[in-house]
Structures are given as structure tokens and as C-alpha cells.
Structure to design on (933 residues):
């Protein structure tokens, strides 16, 4: 019995914590609206009710301290709500402080089960003085702040006396029964201000009413739900609170149902019985729909984390002496709850960063001709099965030169590399660990930890971060994250007789070597296998060796080698597996703690046949096998080097045309590669054209514009066309055969005296001519660039 | 007299073991298993229990008993732990027995090795001794 009482009490405390957290969030939100002058007539009602519920519940379950602190604020709010006091800016600050105090006590309650021993007497005194109008702040507003000053002053001392009594017997449940009545009255209040005078005393009188038994709380609580302010009504009436564990169990069961369904479908596939086929088809449809619906129950609007932001922005802006307006768009965008949790801290950090480093002080902004109030925009939306979150500020932008200089100073980058680096690459330097450009370290940010952690955390959940900035105009951070972590697309492979799932996010491409290539394609560097992927060395790992499924050197040479090119922590490597099976949407399940310490696995999943397959953790696997630097420090040291390398490397498209056997175009200039059958070519005026995506695409025979003009050779069918686009206009360059795409260091050997050729370079040990694309187009279509520029 | 306790019993290498029945979720025949490379030797593999993935612990290895021989496949005793359910692989399942607390004794000092840590105590039944395992400790084999 004693146990039951304890669990009931615990249950009540838990309910209080959950309910109060929501209530206080609403409270903060309404106060901020009031502060901005956007409060509606129910703002004070809602605030009052939030506090009132906390006080009532806390009192009923014997949390005297929370109750007593809540009570003081409630008295003030009650005066405000009844119009006896006018709300002022300093008052809002004190009330927010008060909300923090309640939150702190609740947090303490959650963590330790105690209400905490922090002393709030200073705050309580301030609240009390505000009620009596003693604080100069309260008296300041000229717009008739305190209407019936006398009754208010009289009510408060009385109030205090009672409160002292009621705070001491900790277990004494305080108000409920008649409090309940005050709810009813209160619903009418806004319309009948005349009736309000007696109400303040009414609440006061209510307190000493004989302690009511606990179950009354249960009755009192629904009253709040049924009697909310009109605007919020529809949410609370149709929503119920469900334990997340329950949803997870439901999800598991649905997963199992899907497997059972798959097995049944396999059997019925062989049957010809129409009734059975019909039934199994229905089962199929219903299962799919059920799966989708259950997935949806785990989705939460991003608003759940955004709701806290107005408060953070307000506080940080004050602390920094800045004026900042926060605009949030796409509140209703939904994400899986696990992702919501994962992005909460990174988003908060970015927000603080934008306020601290991005948006300037009002005087600086004014000098730059911008409005004093900075603008911070948060935008969330769905796109292509992903969630996009953008954080934009209209601040000073990122000073690339400064960032580069800082990186050089810290030894993260060589001066030469910095000089060569593009602006875009420069912005991304802020994600390097240990880099902060803040002139001074503030409370808010500037310690040089942060953005790298933000990036790591977002990448951990399969997301990406990109940054754009314009000096003087502002900075935009773009985050892309998957909708859910529970179900992810994965590639299923076989190695050493076992199946493994590889998350698609780390997958770059698949390479299959056959015959001769399979025997000779993989070379060895001091025992480490490597493969030349488009001229670059790709370190390789044998999955079966890495996992100890076979001893090194034991496996026989095979006819076919499957290499999966993966990316982890910005570095590429190849994974050799026995067989590539298929891509599948898999349900991710965690591993038990016995297996958590193995870095190679991210979890497990159940395959269509009901068997379990392990999900590879690509980053962990890469670290264990040492194909990428183990610590981030080393990754850091190598990163700039990589950037340098990329700078004079270019990806080139190799092809031939006529007699010119080796021609190249930078891949960056190629919009698409297309094939057209010869009979698709039509004439428009004196020009060859094809119809392409609803437009007319003029064709240019490249060979005609090269210096050694020659009689046209027999045209290939289908012909290969390189589509080049410039501002919405396209031309098709007809080439011979497309040979390869290579990444090469481009050192132009000589200036070309030849028409149509920009220069020559040695690529793959052979002299290759670089095609002067712009020159050829200008010669063939003199109007192309001018019209392109106009449109 | 204290209330009698119920134990789910099983055999390992001829020894008679038991876990409190309240900790047992269910008992299953042998299940197809996926082995986990690089895992501790005591982890035999993963099984799919109605969509839940369980770690299966080879209790013979865990208790440092000789490895299983012959054709017989092990059975699963699925126990609940603080970290979720875990399957313990045993040779054979015994009955659920009800035992009075007064025949309980702490393990003798001479008990050595890992058993010293995992065996909570011994019930001196008439016909033989029942070794009671600490489920949490047994399941935790990092």
C-alpha cells in the first residue's frame, strides 16, 4: 500500500513537471507578446491560468515551496488580469525572472525529487512591491497604471498573512474546491469588468478552505482543459498525451506486422485462389497505411523547439545591448521526435552565434544605413524528403579575410592555401574546431568551440550544413536533415556470409571491377590496398577482414570485385564486399549495451525474411580501420592540405571530335550530357536544332570550329551532345565519343595559337586540348551571350 | 514465514540454475541467430523477437563452463533487465519451482571465478542444489 502511495505521488509529480513546463512556455510566450505590444485580451488570462494551475497542483501534492513562490506571482497576475494594474516593461522582466525561478525549482524537483534550497525572497519582494505599486517602475507609466489603488494595497497584506499559514503545512492540499468555482467566474470576467472587484478577495478566501482530498486535483485539472481561452481550444480538445515508449512499442509491432505480411505475400504469390489473393492484397494495403500512420504519430512540429527561441533572443539581445526581431516561418514543419531532440542544441547555438557575431549593435547598424533593429529569420520547410532549416540574419556577414587570417594564425591553414581559397570555402572555415573570429569573448559565444560541434552533431544524424554570407548584408546557414532516423534508406551488402546495411547518406558511388581489372585494379602500398579512382588513390578496406570474418589473405581472388565508395568525416574510402544485394528502407533498432562498445555498428535491423542484419557505422568503421585520421585534431591538420589540393585540381570531361582524339571541357561548364538519335535533328533557318525539354536546342558541331577543319566524318548515331547553359539559354555541343571523366591537376602547357582551343595540358600522360567553349559558341552563335545576359 | 518465491529453472552442463520468475519475459525454442563480428565471446548473436532485436548471451561461456557439444540446439530464456530484454542461451529448460526462503544460503566462500560474482545464492532443495543467478549482472557482459 505504501508503495502504491509512493508511485501515485511520483505520478502526480511527473504530471506536474510536464504540465508546468508547457504552462511556463505559454506564459513566457504571452508575456513576450505583451512586451512587444502584440498581446491580445487573453494574454493575461492565459498567463494567469498557467501559474494558477501550477500553484494548485503543487499545493495538492504537498510541494509547499513551489506553491508559495507561484502564489506571489499569481497575486500580481490576478491584479493585472483584472485590470487593477497596468502591465509595464520592468514588470515583464520581473515576471520572466519569476518564470525562471519556477522552472529552476521544477528542474530541481525532476532531478533530485526535492524543491531545491535556492532563496527567492528577493524576487518575491520585487513581485510584492509591484503589486503595491511601491516599485518606481510600476508607478512610472503615466497611462493610469493603478486604477483602484486603495483596494489593491489592502488586498495584498491580507493575502500575505494567509499565504504564510498555508505555506507551512507542506502536505496540506490548498485551494482546489472553491478555486474551481473561481474558474467559472473567471471565464466571464473579460466581458464584465464591473464584477471583478470582489474576485481578488475570492481567490484569497478560497485558500484556507478545508483541505480537499487528492482526487479533486484530477477533477480540477480537466476544468482547465475544458475551459481554455477560445484560440487554444481546438488543440487541447482533440489531443491526448501518450507515452513515447508506447509509440515505440507500437512502431515495433507494426514493423513485425510488415514482416508477417511479407511472408504471407510470398506464399500467396504461388496461389491461384482468388479469395486468398484478394485478402492478402487488402492486408498489404492496410499494413502499409498503418505503418505510415504510426510513423506520423512520432512526428512533432518544429515549433516544439522553436517555442523557446523568442525568449532566448530577447534575453541575449538585452545582454548584448542589441535590438533583434525574430521571425519564424514554417512552425508546423514536422520531424521525427528523435531528430527534434538532436537538433535542439545545434539550433540554439547557431541562433546565439548569429546574434552575437552576426547582428551588429544598433549604432553600427545605423551608420551602415540599416534599421537599428536587426532581423533574424528562422525558416523550416520540407523539400525532397528532407527538412530544410534556414537561419538568416541581416548582420555584418562573415569577414572572409578575417576568418582566413585567423585560421592562418592558428596554424589551421597555410597562407598560400588561404590566398587561393574561394570565399565559399572561406566561410566553411568557421566549422573548423578552434576557430573563433569574435573580437572579444562574450558570455554568449566566441570561445572557439561551437560551430564545429554544431556541424558534427548535424552530420551525426545524417544532415548537412552550408553557409552563405555577403559582407554587410548578412549570413544564411542552411541545414538539411532527414525526416526521420527510425527508417532510413540503406544499401544491403553481403560480406563473409553475413548481410550488412550501409546507410545511403555516406554512400558516394559503387565501382565494379571485372576480369582483368579485378585482378590488377587493386594495388598495394606497403600492404594497404588502394584503387585508382579517376586518377586519385582511394584507400580500401576489406569488410570481411575488418570484421574478423576471415583472416587476412585467406579469401580467394574473385572474378568480380565490388567497391563501395564511402565518405566519412569529409574523407573518401572504398569498402570491398562480396556482393551488393539491393537498396532498402530499413527500420533502425538500437543494439543492447553488451554491443554498444563496438564502433563498427550503428544498430541493427530486421530484413524481409525476418532475420537480423547489422547496420554499419561508417565513421566508426573508418576510424577502427585507420583509413581516416582517428582524432579530429589530425583530420584538422590534414583538411587544409586537402583544400589546397582541390584548388588546382579540376574535373574534366574527356571526349573526341573528328580527328581531335583528346579534347577536354571542365565538367563545371557541362549542364548535362545527352544522346539524340540523328533523325531527331531538325533544321531551323540554317541551323541544326533538336527539341529538348520543351525548348529548341541549337546544335554546334565542335569539330567544325577546331583549327584543323576537315571534311565531316560519318556522324555517330545516336550523337553525343554536351549541353551548355548560361542564364536559362542552352546550346548543344555535338562531340564524337565521350571517353571519361577525370580529376586532374590542370597546368596549361602552352598558349594555343589554334582556333577553338584554349590551351593544352597533359592529362593521364597524354597531351589533351582544352576546348575554348565560350570562343566556339561566340563564333557559332554570335548572339548567345548577349541574349543570355538580357534574359 | 516469508512468501515463497518462484524460479524459472534451467540446466547448463548438468548444473541446475534458476532466475526469479518475475524477471523472465518468456521462454523460446532455438531461434535463428545473426552473429555479431567483433562482439565479446559471450555474445552468441542477435535474434528477432517479434520485431524486437535481442542480444543472445551464451550462458555456458558467461559462466565459464565448457562449450556446448553435440547436435542439441540451445533454448532461450528471455529476461528483462534495466537495459531491455536479453536472451540467455541454456541447454534445457526446467520447471517453474516455488521455494521457501528458509532454505536459501549465500554462496560458499570456496566458489571461485565468475560464478562468485553471478551466483546470488543457493537453495538447498531435497534432491539437488539450485543456483540462483543475478539477472542484471549476468546480462551485463562488457
Amino acid at each position: 500500500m505504501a508503495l502504491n502511495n509512493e508511485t501515485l505521488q511520483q505520478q502526480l509529480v511527473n504530471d506536474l513537471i510536464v504540465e508546468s513546463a508547457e504552462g511556463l512556455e505559454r506564459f513566457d510566450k504571452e508575456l513576450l507578446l505583451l512586451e512587444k505590444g502584440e498581446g491580445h485580451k487573453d494574454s493575461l488570462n492565459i498567463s494567469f491560468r498557467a501559474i494558477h494551475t501550477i500553484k494548485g497542483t503543487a499545493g495538492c501534492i504537498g510541494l509547499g515551496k513551489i506553491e508559495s513562490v507561484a502564489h506571489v506571482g499569481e497575486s500580481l497576475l490576478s491584479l493585472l488580469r483584472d485590470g487593477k494594474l497596468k502591465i509595464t516593461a520592468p514588470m515583464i522582466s520581473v515576471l520572466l525572472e519569476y518564470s525562471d525561478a519556477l522552472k529552476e525549482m521544477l528542474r530541481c524537483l525532476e532531478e533530485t525529487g526535492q524543491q531545491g534550497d535556492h532563496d527567492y525572497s528577493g524576487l518575491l519582494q520585487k513581485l510584492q512591491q509591484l503589486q503595491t505599486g511601491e516599485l518606481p517602475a510600476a508607478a512610472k507609466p503615466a497611462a493610469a497604471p493603478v486604477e483602484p489603488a486603495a483596494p489593491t494595497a489592502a488586498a495584498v497584506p491580507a493575502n500575505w498573512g494567509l499565504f504564510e499559514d498555508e505555506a507551512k503545512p507542506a502536505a496540506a492540499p490548498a485551494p482546489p474546491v472553491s478555486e474551481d468555482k473561481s474558474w467559472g467566474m473567471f471565464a466571464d470576467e473579460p466581458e464584465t469588468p464591473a464584477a471583478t472587484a470582489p474576485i481578488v478577495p475570492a481567490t484569497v478566501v478560497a485558500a484556507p478552505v478545508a483541505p480537499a482530498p487528492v482526487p479533486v486535483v484530477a477533477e480540477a485539472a480537466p476544468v482547465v482543459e475544458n475551459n481554455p481561452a477560445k484560440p487554444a481550444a481546438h488543440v487541447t480538445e482533440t489531443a491526448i498525451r501518450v507515452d513515447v515508449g508506447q509509440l515505440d512499442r507500437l512502431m515495433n509491432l507494426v514493423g513485425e506486422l510488415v514482416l508477417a505480411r511479407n511472408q504471407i505475400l510470398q506464399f500467396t504469390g504461388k496461389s491461384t485462389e482468388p479469395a486468398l489473393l484478394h485478402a492478402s492484397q487488402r492486408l498489404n494495403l492496410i499494413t502499409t497505411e498503418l505503418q505510415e500512420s504510426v510513423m506520423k504519430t512520432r512526428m512533432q512540429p518544429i515549433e516544439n523547439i522553436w517555442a523557446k527561441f523568442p525568449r532566448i533572443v530577447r534575453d541575449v539581445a538585452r545582454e548584448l545591448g542589441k535590438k533583434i526581431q525574430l521571425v519564424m516561418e514554417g512552425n508546423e514543419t514536422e520531424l521525427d521526435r528523435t531528430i527534434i531532440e538532436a537538433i535542439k542544441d545545434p539550433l540554439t547555438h547557431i541562433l546565439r552565434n548569429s546574434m552575437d557575431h552576426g547582428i551588429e549593435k544598433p549604432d553600427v547598424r545605423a551608420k551602415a544605413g540599416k534599421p537599428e533593429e536587426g532581423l533574424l529569420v528562422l525558416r523550416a520547410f520540407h523539400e525532397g524528403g528532407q527538412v530544410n532549416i534556414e537561419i538568416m540574419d541581416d548582420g555584418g556577414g562573415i569577414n572572409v579575410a578575417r576568418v582566413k587570417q585567423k585560421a592562418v594564425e592558428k596554424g589551421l591553414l597555410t597562407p598560400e592555401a588561404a590566398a587561393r581559397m574561394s570565399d565559399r570555402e572561406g566561410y566553411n572555415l568557421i566549422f573548423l574546431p578552434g576557430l573563433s573570429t569574435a573580437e572579444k569573448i562574450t558570455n554568449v559565444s566566441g570561445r572557439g568551440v561551437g560551430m564545429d560541434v554544431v556541424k558534427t552533431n548535424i552530420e551525426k544524424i545524417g544532415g548537412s550544413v552550408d553557409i552563405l554570407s555577403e559582407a554587410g548584408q548578412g549570413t544564411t546557414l542552411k541545414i538539411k536533415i532527414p525526416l526521420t532516423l527510425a527508417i532510413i534508406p540503406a544499401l544491403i551488402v553481403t560480406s563473409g556470409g553475413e548481410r550488412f546495411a550501409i546507410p545511403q547518406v555516406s554512400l558516394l558511388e559503387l565501382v565494379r571491377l571485372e576480369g582483368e581489372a579485378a585482378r590488377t585494379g587493386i594495388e598495394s602500398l606497403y600492404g594497404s590496398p588502394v584503387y585508382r579512382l579517376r586518377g586519385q588513390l582511394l584507400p580500401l578496406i576489406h569488410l570481411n577482414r575488418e570484421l574478423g570474418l576471415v583472416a587476412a589473405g585467406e579469401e580467394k581472388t574473385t572474378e568480380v570485385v565490388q567497391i563501395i565508395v564511402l565518405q566519412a568525416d569529409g574523407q573518401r574510402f572504398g569498402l570491398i564486399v562480396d556482393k551488393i544485394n539491393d537498396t532498402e528502407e530499413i527500420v533502425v533498432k538500437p543494439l543492447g549495451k553488451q554491443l554498444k562498445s563496438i564502433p563498427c555498428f550503428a544498430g541493427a535491423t530486421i530484413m524481409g525474411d525476418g532475420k537480423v542484419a547489422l547496420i554499419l557505422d561508417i565513421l566508426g568503421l573508418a576510424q577502427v580501420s585507420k583509413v581516416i585520421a582517428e582524432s579530429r585534431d589530425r583530420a584538422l591538420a590534414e583538411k587544409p592540405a586537402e583544400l589546397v589540393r582541390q584548388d588546382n585540381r579540376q574535373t574534366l570531361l574527356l571526349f573526341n571530335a573528328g580527328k581531335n582524339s583528346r579534347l577536354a571541357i571542365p565538367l563545371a561548364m557541362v549542364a548535362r550530357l545527352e544522346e539524340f538519335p540523328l533523325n531527331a535533328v531538325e533544321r531551323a533557318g540554317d541551323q541544326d536544332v533538336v527539341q529538348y525539354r520543351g525548348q529548341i536546342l541549337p546544335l554546334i558541331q565542335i569539330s567544325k570550329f577546331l583549327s584543323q577543319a576537315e571534311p565531316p566524318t560519318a556522324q555517330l548515331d545516336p550523337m553525343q551532345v554536351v549541353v551548355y547553359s548560361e542564364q536559362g539559354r542552352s546550346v548543344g555541343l555535338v562531340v564524337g565519343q565521350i571517353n571519361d571523366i577525370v580529376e586532374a591537376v590542370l597546368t596549361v602547357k602552352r598558349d594555343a595559337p589554334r582556333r577553338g582551343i584554349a590551351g593544352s595540358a597533359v592529362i593521364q600522360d597524354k597531351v589533351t586540348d582544352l576546348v575554348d567553349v565560350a570562343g566556339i559558341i561566340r563564333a557559332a552563335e554570335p548572339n548567345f551571350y548577349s541574349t543570355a545576359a538580357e534574359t | 514465514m516469508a512468501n515463497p518465491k518462484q524460479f524459472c529453472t534451467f540446466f547448463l552442463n548438468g548444473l541446475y540454475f534458476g532466475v526469479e520468475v518475475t524477471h523472465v519475459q518468456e521462454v523460446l525454442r532455438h531461434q535463428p541467430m545473426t552473429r555479431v563480428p567483433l562482439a565479446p565471446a559471450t555474445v552468441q548473436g542477435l535474434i528477432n523477437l517479434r520485431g524486437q532485436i535481442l542480444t543472445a548471451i551464451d550462458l555456458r561461456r558467461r559462466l565459464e563452463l565448457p562449450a556446448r557439444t553435440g547436435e542439441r540446439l540451445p533454448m532461450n530464456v528471455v529476461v528483462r533487465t534495466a537495459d531491455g530484454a536479453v536472451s540467455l542461451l541454456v541447454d534445457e529448460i526446467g520447471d517453474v519451482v516455488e521455494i521457501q526462503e528458509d532454505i536459501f544460503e549465500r554462496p560458499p566462500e570456496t566458489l571461485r571465478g565468475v560464478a562468485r560474482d553471478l551466483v546470488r545464492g543457493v537453495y538447498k532443495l531435497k534432491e539437488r542444489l539450485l543456483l540462483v543467478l543475478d539477472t542484471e549482472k549476468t546480462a551485463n557482459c562488457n
Summary: The longest strand of chain A covers residues 374-383. The interface with chain B takes residues 252-253, 255-256, 259, 496, 498, 547-549, 589, 591-595, 597-598, 600-601, 604, 606, 610-614 of chain A (CB under 8 Å). Residues 301-482 of chain A form a domain with the Heat Shock Protein 90 fold (CATH 3.30.565.10). Chain A has five domains: 2-238, 244-297, 301-482, 488-633, 648-790.
